[in-house]
Specification:
The complex is a heterodimer. Chain A is of the alpha+beta class. Chain A is built from 17 helices and 13 strands. Chain A folds into four domains: about 20-95, no CATH class; about 105-290, Beta-Lactamase, CATH 3.30.450; about 310-390; about 395-545, Heat Shock Protein 90 (2-Layer Sandwich). Chain A is elongated and about 170 Å long. By secondary structure, chain B is α/β, with parallel strands linked by helices. Classes of the chains: A alpha+beta, B alpha/beta.
């Protein structure tokens, strides 16, 4: 290409240059002035003068000219590719750093509110995925519905300008941003979006809903023409007010935890497939963190319940021990009473008898009257002592019904096993304590169970407890028994002739005892569905008369 | 004349009840044990039984249950030295209970009341 006769427009052929010789050189390029090779590769290849020189060379018909042109073009193409790759790598490095930071924060937290704050901040922060708004929907405890739980983002351009300016000038990292969000804005953001969050309720059985479909497919979805897309419910598009939004399913261990909806409501900036891919990697740690934090939260609730139950159990154990002691005292006093009262009664009784047949002027009448009076006074003193001892019995108190049922079942275990009967107990969860007389209720329960079993063998009894309004109900289902209506009536009629007289007696007695405590005992026998006993217990003192 | 069976393990109490209730115009028979009581109940007709809860080595409650099962038309009044009927809810099967006392007025009134109630039931065909 170099030809002594040719005058080149570009300065590529000179070894030394001054800054004025090349329009592409600037103050910072001083080291290129004396480095011809570097200057050529970095500057000349893109220089219009050089391109014109190359064009003239090609026109000269020199055989190497086309090869030079090819090399030049290929060099420029490859350099552009390298630059693009470098830029891509830079972006990915930033993304990895961000995800690493996010992962560290998410992994170290079991606080649900913190996890949610981090997740939503990451989506909307400029340092993160830079979306304008994000809505988080969480599956409810029964996993029947997805419900709007939290949202983040501005609602107007003014608010956006203000918020983004604050964030830009604060230079906080993700963790600090989310902490600041949690402390200062979490509840206000929730209130701010309450109108939308309240309407974001989606049945998890609604397989036609686009959010549920996304959860089923376990892949994020970019919705681009929401108002025209037949898959998108018009209410959802109207609620969000945007044509383009992202749906990010949150799945942890195949469990549908929730979903995030994100959009650019303010800037209306398009969301690209690259955005979708970047954000996809983010959803897994978020879903796991939410699931873990939810489980932790539930665990805490269960631990608290367990602790409360343990405290109740301890109280009741103490009460039981006290009852046993008092019962012992009662038995001793009863025995003493029997030993004293009988002779006292005989003395007093015969004295009265003699007194009746003693003439008014009999000189011994006064002695007999003294015996009657003294015996009577001793009876009164004895009665006082016995009444006091009787008052030591705890009568009614708040009791754990499940524990009472379990104890009663243990008491009749021998009989149940001897007759090869099965008793299945399903205790209700979180039941309040019932205000009952423990002894009377457990007596009734034992007798109802024993009466139900009777002399039959190989049957099945199902006992369960549950809360109905402010009552605790004990249900006893005997599926192996069929009763006609008249037999059912006879069952609860005292001393009525039934083919199972034992039961009739027990049940009538139990009903009578429970009625005295204002506790109804109901027995129903639906056709072909066994017999059901129901005992409803009060949970408040004032409900008992 | 109404016939009353008194069941008590104390001979003096049986004697006292027999005297006092006879004075009230009842025909009284006594039994010291449950076996004796059962035998008399099977052989004779009684309108009412006065039963001590605590017999020497036996339980008056068991006898009460037996009476209620076999003769549930006959009222029973339980007598007790102490309110221990509360410990055994089967005692609730009785028509009435009376705490033992040298003053038999309460027992006599209960007997009258229970027998009147029985008579009413009978008149009503129950």
């Amino acid at each position: 290409m170099d030809d002594d006769t040719t005058q080149w427009e570009c300065c590529w052929d000179r070894d030394l240059l001054s800054l004025d010789d090349c329009p592409n050189l600037s103050e910072g390029d001083a080291d290129l002035l004396c480095s011809r090779e570097r200057r050529f590769l970095e500057k000349c290849c893109d220089c219009d003068r050089f391109k014109r020189d190359l064009s003239r060379f090609r026109e000269s018909g020199h055989p190497l000219a086309p090869i030079f042109s090819t090399l030049h073009n290929d060099y420029r193409r490859q350099r552009a590719q390298i630059q693009a790759l470098g830029s891509f790598l830079d972006t990915k490095t930033l993304e990895v750093r961000f995800l690493h930071e996010l992962g560290s924060v998410l992994q170290s937290s079991v606080d649900l509110e913190e996890v949610l704050s981090v997740a939503l901040t990451a989506i909307t922060s400029g340092k993160g995925f830079g979306m304008n708004r994000a809505f988080l929907l969480l599956a409810d405890k029964e996993r029947h519905f997805l419900r709007g739980h939290l949202a983040i983002g501005p609602r107007s351009a003014e608010e956006a300008g203000r918020t983004w300016h604050e964030v830009d000038t604060s230079d906080l990292d993700l963790q600090s941003l989310s902490r600041s969000f949690r402390q200062n804005k979490l509840s206000s953001e929730r209130d701010k979006f309450q109108d939308i969050l309240g309407k974001l309720v989606i049945s998890m059985d609604n397989i036609h809903h686009i959010v549920i479909q996304t959860l089923e497919e376990k892949k994020p979805l970019l919705v681009q023409h929401a108002f025209q897309d037949p898959r998108v419910a018009p209410e959802l598009a109207q609620l969000l007010g945007v044509d383009t939004f992202l749906i990010l399913p949150l799945i942890a261990r195949n469990r549908r935890v929730g979903a995030i909806l994100a959009d650019n409501f303010i800037t209306r900036q398009p969301i690209t497939d690259d955005d979708l891919r970047s954000i996809e990697t983010f959803t897994f740690p978020v879903a796991f963190a939410i699931e873990r934090a939810s489980l932790y939260e539930r665990l805490q609730v269960e631990v608290a319940k367990l602790q409360a139950a343990n405290r109740r159990l301890q109280d009741q154990q103490e009460l039981l021990v006290k009852m046993e002691k008092m019962a012992l005292v009662g038995r001793i006093t009863s025995s003493i009473a029997h030993s004293i009262r009988n002779p006292l009664m005989i003395i007093g009784g015969f004295a009265r008898s003699i007194l009746k047949s003693t003439a008014d002027d009999d000189p011994k009448r006064g002695f007999i009257e003294s015996i009657v009076a003294e015996a009577h006074q001793m009876e009164e003193v004895l009665e006082e002592i016995l009444t006091y001892s009787d008052a030591l019995y705890p009568v009614r108190d708040f009791w754990d019904v499940n524990q009472l049922v379990e104890t009663s079942l243990r008491d009749i275990q021998d009989k149940v096993m001897t007759q090869n009967y099965s008793c299945r107990f399903r205790p209700g969860e979180g039941l309040p304590s019932a205000y009952v007389d423990y002894k009377q209720l457990s007596y009734c329960l034992r007798n109802i169970l024993l009466g139900t079993i009777g002399s039959r063998e190989n049957g099945l009894l199902e006992i369960s407890t549950r809360q109905i309004d402010d009552m605790v109900e004990i249900l006893i289902d005997d599926h192996s028994r069929r009763l006609a209506e008249e037999e059912l009536e006879a069952l609860l009629t005292p001393f009525a002739e039934t083919h199972e007289m034992g039961s009739g007696l027990n049940l009538a007695l139990c009903r009578s005892m429970l009625e005295k405590l204002d506790i109804p005992l109901l027995v129903v026998a639906p056709p072909d569905d066994g017999v059901r006993y129901s005992i409803k217990l009060p949970t408040h003192k004032e409900e008992q008369s | 004349m109404n016939r009353i069976l008194v069941v008590d393990d104390e001979a003096n109490i049986r004697l006292l009840y027999a005297e006092e209730l006879t004075d009230e115009g009842y025909e009284v028979a006594t039994a010291a044990t449950t076996a004796e009581a059962v035998e008399k109940l099977q052989q004779q007709h009684f309108d009412l039984t006065v039963l001590d809860i605590k017999l020497r080595n036996e339980s008056g409650i068991e006898l009460l249950q037996k009476i209620v099962k076999e003769r549930h038309d006959m009222p029973v009044i339980l007598c007790s030295a102490f309110s221990c009927y509360k410990d055994d809810f089967s005692a609730w099967l009785a028509d009435s209970y009376v705490v033992k006392s040298g003053d038999l007025t309460e027992l006599k009134e209960e007997i009258k009341r229970v027998l009147a109630k029985k008579a009413q039931r009978k008149a009503a065909g129950m």
